[in-house]
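Consider the subject:
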Amino acid sequence: MKKTKSIINSIWQKTVVKINGNYLLLPNDLEKTASKDYYLINPSYFSPAHYRIFAKIDSNNHWNKLADDSYKFLEAFHTHKISNNDQPKLPPNWIILNKKELTISEPEDKNLNTNFGFDALRIPFRIGLDWQWHHKKQAKDYLSLFEELNQSWNQHSKIFAEYSRYGNNIVDYETHAMYGGTLSYFTIHQPKMYNNYKRCDTQRL
């Protein structure tokens, strides 16, 4: 347990920052020490369900607050517009957060895009854990923002492997990863469709 506590504390010290009174998990330790005016964020690294468990082991750091604050950032990254673009409907793989102005923008590296794809698909999975393990209303409320998945299912009878942040499918194929990652939304908010959705995942691909 002593070693476990040391590892958990190290995660906090190396990757958690405080912005305007809210705690935020960064994707790595280099991001915390880099001398630049922004943070590169991967929202799929946020895992409130695990932070609540960490809090029981490491009482020296504010894991429960990090769990709650993560939802503030998740909602912002999910819904806030970039420039004059359309209203976003899905969370991004990667996003830039300005340290001072707290504005968001797209990464310059095109390999780190704002699409809803193989990184961001982990977000509903991780948030689903917070509902299943801890029954947090925050988790259920946040998952309701994934209504665009329901629209895609109703229109195409499938969930595509990658979407733009604005809900347009970028590819025309499916993957087990996307079905598995987004299953918690349908389990919690579309229970009548859950069996058909699950059957599609296990039988069609």
Summary: Residues 63-79 form the longest helix (17 residues). DSSP finds nine helices and five strands in the chain. The domain at 2-204 is CATH 1.50.10.10 (Glycosyltransferase). The chain has a mean pLDDT of 93.
